[in-house]
Amino acid sequence: xxxxxxxxxxxxxxxxxxxxxxxxxxxxxxxxxxxxxxxxxxxxxxxxxxxxxxxxxxxxxxxxxxxxxxxxxxxxxxxxxxxxxxxxxxxxxxxxxxxxxxxxxxxxxxxxxxxxxxxxxxxxx
Length: 125
Prior knowledge:
Blueprint: H1 3-23, H2 27-32, E1 34-41, E2 51-53, H3 55-68, E3 73-82, E4 85-96, E5 99-112, E6 115-123
Parallel strand pairs: 1-6
Antiparallel strand pairs: 1-2, 3-4, 4-5, 5-6
């Protein structure tokens, strides 16, 4: 395996671990997989979402998100990587007004030194 293939393999592993921690609503594990200077771009509000920079701001967002969405679950439909970049096509599922609800979207990850440096989220519709 050459260096590029090793980097791609590491990228996939980091993103898969991130997604597992996320679906476990484990803020500590999620943040352990993110860099101190990480960037997260949320999907809301439309049209451009909110950009959060730095581990403290991102941690605060995840804590509120998991508190407000205790049944949130992301199902990866497809994951592929090239070097230190990874794309995850997903379905976000939760209950809304007592009914099952879902949203489809894509995350674009950048991995630096084995951690998530960027997570940029986009949705359909």
